[in-house]
Design goal:
The chain is of the alpha+beta class and about 525 residues long. Helix content is about 45%, strand content about 15%. A hairpin with a 4-residue loop joins strand 3 and strand 4.
């Protein structure tokens, strides 16, 4: 049965009281801290015996006390009652009734005649419940302002929780501190700020975690806030017996102390360690002395290493270690650890094959598959390599037949000219008509020739060899139809080179003629000037 804060709102969203998995309002009968199930509730009492008149009442954050029903009121579990307080009255919820209350009183060592057992006034009226709820709503603001006052006073303490009494006239401040704190001025400031009576109560780190609650590293709620009531001492020796690394970050809980769960399995580990030898014991073998490294308690395996060869560990069973110890006690040396290790048979753990109930576990099963891009890149690279190798082979063949500079410079002109070789004209006629143009082109192409040489040299480097070796088959297939074209190009290049050689001297003579005429004129002018001087 849940309270109103656990219900859903109009939009079917749970409200929640944000209490880390426990009821913070104190009105839930289930899911509370340190709740006890009344398994005797359906059993009737024997004849002539009256029910037990002391009840257990729960307050905020699992705080519980015992109260006597002196007025003989009809009270059951889950009822909200007004009980006696230190001054005034307090409001709480009945958490346990009947014979089980006697068991709880024995655990806490509280007698029925004790002064700590106070009385129940009445069942809480609606007015009492309203005052109680308004007081509970003031707790967060009081805690915030209380921390501000503590900060101004410079006190080394931590205010962890505030609890108001049911009538709203008193508040209890729970704090933690490492040293003794003088909070007399703090009480005055708090009383004047909130107009209430103030009670300061110091708690330990574990009690603070139990009051606030939380989730541990195991994923479950804290043991101290759900079922653990007695806080025993925890030492680092318990971690050593369990072969755990002494890392304070892993061994500490939310309270900052060692985890209480380190003591839960300590007894079983101590029982298992009785059969194991001491870790300081040195094993004497024929190869040398062996030292303990580590152990697996439940598999009964131990690892040893030689003092001289500490880089290699040898896995031995517990029986083998006892055998070597018995030999050493009889002043005999055991065989080398390598022989013992070969005898150890590793027991394979059965693998659990989980069945696929859904049938499709892949999260990307509805995504459209992407086409692979690697094949495209490879095909492009292959075509480019084939083209480069073909061009390089053609260039290498033309080197021995004529100057490669003229051949390369003529190729684009032939394409633009539109098949000049197929028109049936003689090569001498073409060269005679285009002689001066060829000379000009040769002079303009001089810087380009240097660049062409560099390119050829780079192409003749080992890269060409790798490309030729990578695709020899493709070259042979592609070069077959190109052989005829290469022959035609060779013939054309021969004719062009011959025509250029014939035309070159003529063009030089033509260029030298105007220079000779100019020299004659200069000589005539000199002679005339000398004649004039003589006259």
């Amino acid at each position: 049965m849940g309270c109103s804060s656990c219900a859903t709102n109009k939009s079917s969203v749970p409200n929640g009281c944000k209490s880390n998995g426990n009821c913070a309002t104190g009105s839930c009968s289930s899911g509370t801290k340190l709740a006890v199930f009344d398994w005797l509730s359906n059993m009737t009492l024997p004849t002539g015996e009256a029910p037990f008149n002391i009840y257990e009442v729960r307050f905020k954050n699992g705080r519980k006390h015992f109260y006597r029903n002196s007025e003989k009121l009809s009270i059951s579990m889950g009822d909200v009652v007004a009980v006696e307080g230190s001054s005034g009255h307090d409001v709480g919820v009945v958490s346990l009734a009947g014979e089980l209350v006697k068991v709880q009183m024995r655990k806490r060592k509280v007698s029925a005649d004790s002064e700590d057992v106070k009385k129940i006034y009445r069942k809480a009226s609606q007015k009492d419940i309203d005052v109680w709820q308004t007081a509970r709503e003031r707790e967060k603001e009081t805690q915030r302002r209380g921390r501000e006052i503590i900060g101004k006073l410079g006190l080394k303490m931590k205010l962890s929780d505030v609890e108001y009494q049911g009538d709203g006239t008193k508040a209890t401040f729970y704090y933690t501190a490492d040293d003794r704190v003088d909070f007399r001025q703090l009480i005055r400031d708090l009383a004047s700020a909130f107009s209430i009576r103030v009670e300061m109560k110091q708690v330990g780190m574990r009690q603070e975690a139990a009051r606030l609650g939380g989730v541990g590293s195991c994923g479950r709620e804290l043991c101290c806030s759900t079922w653990l009531t007695d806080f025993r001492k925890v030492n680092t020796a318990s971690a050593r017996y369990q072969q755990l690394s002494l890392n304070p970050l892993k061994l500490a809980g939310q309270c900052g102390k060692l985890k209480c769960c380190l003591n839960f399995e300590l007894d079983s580990y101590l029982d298992a360690l009785k059969e194991f030898p001491k870790q300081d014991l040195v094993l004497k073998t024929e190869k040398g002395e062996a030292v303990f490294v580590k152990m697996d308690i439940f598999k009964q395996l131990l690892w040893y290493t030689y003092k001289e060869e500490s880089y290699k560990w040898y896995k031995l069973s517990l029986d083998q270690v006892h055998e070597i110890i018995e030999l050493n006690e009889a002043d005999e040396l055991g065989s080398p650890l390598e022989e013992y290790e070969s005898e150890v048979l590793e027991v394979e753990e059965p693998k659990q094959d989980f069945e696929n109930v859904v049938g499709q576990d892949s999260l990307t099963r509805f995504d459209t598959p992407k086409k692979p891009r690697r094949n495209r890149r490879k095909s492009k690279k292959g075509n480019n390599n084939n083209k480069q190798t073909n061009n390089k082979q053609a260039n290498n063949r033309t080197k021995g037949q004529g100057k490669p500079q003229k051949v390369e410079n003529r190729k684009p002109q032939d394409k633009k000219g539109g098949a000049n070789n197929n028109q049936g004209k003689k090569p001498n006629q073409q060269s005679s008509k285009k002689g001066p143009q060829n000379n000009k082109q040769q002079n303009n192409n001089k810087p380009q020739n240097n660049n062409n040489k560099r390119r050829r040299n780079n192409n003749n480097k080992p890269k060409t060899e790798s490309n030729q070796n990578s695709a020899p088959k493709a070259e042979n297939k592609q070069n077959k139809p190109q052989n005829n074209n290469n022959k035609r190009r060779r013939n054309n290049n021969k004719q062009k080179s011959e025509s250029n050689q014939n035309v070159a001297p003529k063009a030089e003579n033509k260029q030298n003629k105007p220079q000779n005429n100019n020299n004659k004129r200069r000589n005539n002018n000199k002679n005339n000037a000398e004649n004039n001087k003589q006259k």
